[in-house]
Amino acid sequence: MRVVKILLGGAALVGVAAFGAYQYWQSRLAAPIALEAPTIYEVPRGAGFQQILGELESQGIIEAAWPYRVLAKLSPEAVNGLRSGEFELTPGMSGREMVARLSSDNIVTYRLTIPEGWTFAQMRRALAEAPKLEHRTQDMSDAEVMAALGHEDEHPEGRFFPDTYRYHKGMTDLALLERAYARMDNMLRDAWAGRSGDLPLETPYEALILASLIERETGVPNERRRIAGVFVRRLERGMRLQTDPTVIYGMGEDYDGNITRDDLRRETPYNTYVIDGLPPTPIAMPGEASLEAAVDPASGDALYFVSRGDGSHYFSSTLAEHNAAVRRYILNR
Q: Exposed site from 144, 202, 206, 303, fewest CB < 10 Å?
């Protein structure tokens, strides 16, 4: 009988010790990780859990690796979902929360803003300067970039939608370009499907070209459809568009901020003071409002407009009125 009591007592002690050890292990996982400020921790591609634990311990993010090794043994499903990428670890986060964060889709992302009216060259410079992005296109020509995207016969200008894009470390510039291309393709398709009747435009690409002219002419929202109306009426009447942004685009790097009379007469494929109709390609990346204006221009009789100098324009229906507006807003200034 005494032996039985001793055995039972020993078993009880073992049980108490085991329970105490279990509670201590749980408390270590529930305790805050050793951080005083938010920290970006990157899980390397292909890294195993033991490697990650060693790095977390060496960086002082966790005080000891053993509680997590026990977790991997007792609950392997808790650590099997770890993924590569950058994750933000914050003070006060428990060990369990840290493991859950490293197994989540909550990867650190970065923002790249491509403004409306930018050219493809400006977009490429922004991509080249974007941190954490994997740069694969830096040594490619524009034609090579389009070929890499699967659009080797297309001119890149205007083909990418201006917007703010989020990306994570390791994402390639080609992947971001693919997103921007697909977004513009969808936006243009939707705009073209809702176009007004009797437009002097035969294809969605012509609408894209016209939208780029509208984008470069004004940033005033309520003017876009009015400017579109002027361009459409001029196209319908066989009048040249005579829009300065096409002159600037055709000048390329020769443009120094000023346009002279000689520049207006310079023969380039884009100079709408010289060529008839639309230029051969877009001259910038239009936003949604300019796409919609291009396919739904405002009605009216205006055939001319001139900048007032404050971002807005004065619209005229006759050449005499337009010349008076030029004298008032341009020559006098």
A: 202
Alpha carbons 330 and 332: distance in angstroms, whole number: 6
Q: Reply yes or no on whether the pLDDT at 18 is more than 80.
A: no
The mean pLDDT of 224-251, rounded to a whole number, is 96
Taking CA atoms, 70 is separated from 26, 43, 79, in Å, by 10, 20, 11
Is residue 35 within 8 Å of residue 94, measured between CB atoms?
no
Query: Would the CA dihedral through 27, 28, 29, 31 be positive or negative?
Result: positive
Determine contact, residues 181/151, Cβ cutoff 8 Å.
yes
**44 with 87: CB under 8 angstroms?**
no
Taking only the tens place, the pLDDT of each residue in 244-298 is 999 999 999 889 888 888 999 999 999 999 999 999 999 999 999 999 999 999 9
pLDDT digit string (tens) for 239-250?
999 999 999 999
The mean per-residue pLDDT over the stretch 43-52 comes to: 87
pTM above 0.90, yes or no: no
How crowded is residue 148: how many other Cβ atoms within 10 Å of its Cβ?
Answer: 15
The DSSP element (H or E) to which 21 belongs, if any, is helix 2-30
- Summarised one tens digit per residue, pLDDT across range 199-216 is 999 999 999 999 999 999
Mode of pairing for the β-strands spanning 313-316 and 39-43: unpaired
Cβ within 8 Å of residue 109, ≥6 positions away: 166, 167, 168
78 CA to centre of own chain: 34
**Residues linked to residue 88 through DSSP beta bridges, in sequence order:** 40
Residues 6+ away with beta carbon under 8 Å from 77: none
Tokens of 275: 């060529």
How is residue 80 written in tokens? 């099997």
